[in-house]
Every structure is written in structure tokens, then in C-alpha cells.
Amino acid sequence: MGYKQQAAEKIAGALSQMGVDNFDSETVYGMLETPPNPEMGDIAFPCFQLAKALRKAPPMIAAELAGQISGTPLREVKAVGPYVNLFLDQQSVAAQVIGTILEQGGTYGSSAVGEGRNVPIDLSSPNIAKPFSMGHLRSTVIGNAIANIMEKQGYKPVRINHLGDWGTQFGKLIVAYRLWGDEAKVKAEPIKELLSLYIRFHEEAENDPALEDQGREWFKKLEDGDEEAQHLWKWFRDESLKEFMKIYELMNVSFDSTNGEAFYNDKMDRVVTLLEEKGLLSESDGALVVNLDEYDMPPSLIKKSDGATLYATRDLAAALYRHETYDFAKAVYVVGNEQRLHFQQLFKVLEKMGYDWARNMHHVPFGMMLKDGKKMSTRKGKVVLLEEVLAQAIADVQKVIEEKNPSLANKEEVARQVGVGAVIFHDLKNFRLNDVNFSWEEMLTFEGETGPYVQYSHARACSLLRKGNYQPGAAVSLAEGALESKEAWAVITLLNNFPEVIQRAADNFDPSQIGKYVIDLAQVFNKFYANVRILAEEENIKASRLALVAAVVVVLKEGLRLLGLAAPEEM
Ligand code: ARG
User: Fold this and answer.
1) What total number of domains does the chain contain?
2) pTM surpassing 0.90?
């Protein structure tokens, strides 16, 4: 239990002694404030809300309450006007925080709130035969971090790569391949070649509209299990997936399922039947739709006039499947903001079908990746392929290492960890709905708010422990006064906040809470390091300060891990 909870419990206890019984420790905890300056105390509790229950003026209540609160970790309790101000005994708080972290290691900040329940997370989900876009990168990075954070909260994340491997575009691609395709070329550079076939299809179709019909026919054949169509489709899928796997390997992301849209092909009749039975289908221009007028939304398109199913139909089938397979606590879809309406419609249709559990489904949208203020697109000329971005980041880091630390062991692995980490962190440090401005300079610098900066701070702390010959596992007894500085205290209070930050990140599906937190922690640690002597102190003081550094190492590493970054010990 952190010191804020302890303070809240003491206050709640005192309040119930005073005859107030509807302020439990959780409520009190939510009311706690931080005084505007540390001389006024470390924690403040405002008494305004108690005036009614106690029929007294808040300053009187504060005075009375202050007299009833004492004991570790508090040093002093004072009423100041309508506030009760609490001063912490920093020495005992420090011992408690550091002791907990060193004892729990990587499990510090874990919680059991998820009760082991499943949380399927739909992430990444690129489209077969198309380049892996910046949007898919964002989904991968944000989704993976959310999965780690949910796991830390005691849920069981199920990472699902809902591949875009079905739809009329595959009919078109088959037509294009049969007309102009070259097997060897596809094998050599699958995505590039398939994309150019697809682009050619559209160019030629402008003069030859019959191509579009052929495309539809071939998709119908595919849906009906035609052998040639199935064979080509599977080949396109396998080759594309091989390329995507290279990216996932670089980023160290793996999936529990790669059931994409095609997986639901044989599960869609049931959806249509269910919708029919519930009287939700209506006809519109020969197509079948679910009307959503009452929500001011356009209808959800379920079946086209030629009988082909749609993206929405597949997502309905997938939702039913996930509910039945995982009995989830929550289901999460990490998909760009431009699909907001699609998910609103999806959830409304499920609600109209009478499924209460639709309330536990969350679309977790994110903004765009911009370059020079414009959307980074993978169409035609403007292609910035993700693989190239990652390769470039790694190469840049390699250069820095060659300059600054050429004798580093594991150079290549560290360059990968830092280069990829830079790309991931660049995305995660801002709230996901904000657009990200893609910038090499901003991404790769070792100073400022970057992944390399946090990783570098972690490595510095590790090196300090090595130099100080820090003995892990030794019981922590802090030397009197060793951590009495505002620099040390800033580190300790932040360390204490980690569990709360994780919880907030989980509740809001917001990894940037952790991104900002690790930057803050790296900064206060570096200030501590710059202003407080560590290695040149006498043994007791040195050991106490190193214990704090060791706690920083644990928390920085764990924070980075939650975001999907490695924490090399040397760089
Ligand atoms: N493949 C889609 C796209 O690239 C994203 C799929 C998201 N997941 C889902 N269940 N709809 O736009």
C-alpha cells in the first residue's frame, strides 16, 4: 500500500470516529490534493464536503480532524483553514517505497483487478497484399502496449491480428494476377508486386469497366470456395504474412490469433439468420441493411445485392465469435479514428440484437501519422514503408553507437532495441487521439522526450550500480539522512505513483500515461544523479543511495516493458 492510501485510511478512520460514515478510504483518497508548495505539506485534505454531515464550519472540522490523525508514515498533521495538511516522514516513506520495489521487482505495480478474465484486443490488422501502413504501425504499437498494461492489471489479453484478408479487392487482385501477374516477381517482392497489380487493375478498369464485373465475379467464386480462386488467395495471404512477420519480429510483437476476416466466411450465414429472426433486416436497393435511424446513423450494410458480405458483416460474426470463445471482461478494438462510425454502428447493431455484452466493447481510436502536416499515405508515390522506417532508425542508432561506444558488446541487438524503441516511443508518448508528427530528429535524439533518452537513463543507472558494486537482495536499511534531499524525494514520490499510473493507463486504454511517467522518472533520476554524490560517499550512505537507484532501474525497465521497449543494461 502506497503512502497516500495509508493517509487516506487514517483520515477515513478518524472521520468514522467523528461519526461520519459515508467517507470510506477510497472516497477520501479521491479527495486528496497536493499542496501548492511543499512547505505547506505533502498531502492536503479539504473539509468542505463534510460541513453538511457535521454541521460545522470546514475550518473547525479541519482542526478537530487534524488532532485525530497520527502515526507512520506521518511526521506532522496541521489544520490550515479548511484544510488538513499532512507532512510525511520522508525517511520511513523512502524505506517503504524502496523496500517494496526491491522486494517485488518486475511485479511492482501489478494488480489483480482483472481476475484473470479474457480481454481480446484487436490490433495491427493490416490488409493482405497491401503495404503495412503507418496506421497499422500505430495500431500495433498502441494495441501491444494496452495488452501489456491489461495483463499487468490481472487480465488475460488475447492479441488478435484481424487481418484484412477478405473482400471484393481480392476478386480484383485475382483478375489482375491472371491477366498480368508473374509468379517469380510476386515471390521476390510480394507486397510491392501485388500492390502494383492492384493499382494497374484500377488504371485499366477506368477504360474497361468490364474488369470491375470480373472482379466481383471472382470474389463471389472465392466466397463459394472455387479452387483456383482459393489457391491464389491463400498464396497471396501467405506471402504477405511472411513480410508482415518480419516487421513483427523486429518489433518483438506476437499474436495469439491471426484469424482475419476470411476466418468468418463460414460464420456469416448465422449472423444474417439471427438478424432476420430478430426482424432487424430491411431491404434497400436490393441490399440488406440494419436501419439505425433512431441513433442518427446511416444503416449498417450487411449483404450486397449480389449476395456478397461486407466488412461490417464480418465484424458482427467476429464479435459473436469472440464473445462465445473468450467470455470476455472487455473487448478492445485498436483501430484508427476514421473508423469511428463503423464501430459505433457495430455496437449499436449488437445492442439491437439484444446483447448486453456489447456494452463491454470498446473502440480505442487513434489519430493519424503526419509528415510535414500531411497524412502519411502508402498510395502511389508517397510510400514510406514501415520496414524502411525501422531499418533507418536502427542504422542511425548504429552510427551513434559506433561514434560513442564502439566497444559495446551486442552492438547489433542494442541498436535494434534502441532504434525500434525510438519509433515505438515516438508514437506512445502522446495521447493516442493526437496526430503524430513524424520526425526523425525528434524520434532519435538521446535527449528530450524520447525512447532512447529513457533507455539511456536506465543504462546509466545500471552502470552506476555496477560501479558501486551494488549487491541485489541485501536488506535495505536506509542510513539516516541519506535520502534527505529534494532530488531524492522527487524520485521517491514518483516511484510511489507507478501503480496508480498503470491503473489510469488501463482504465483509459492510454499508454501515454506510462510514456509520460517514464520520461518524468528518467528526468528526476538524472537530476538526482547530477546533484547528489553517490559513489564517493561512505559505505552506508552510498548503499542507501544505490538502493534508490536500483529501485529506479526496476521501475524504468518495467515501464519500458509495458510500452513494448527493451531496456538494455549498456548502451
Ligand atoms: N484491416 C482493417 C484496416 O486496415 C482494420 C481492421 C480492424 N479490425 C476490425 N475488427 N475491424 O482498415
Assistant:
1) 3
2) yes
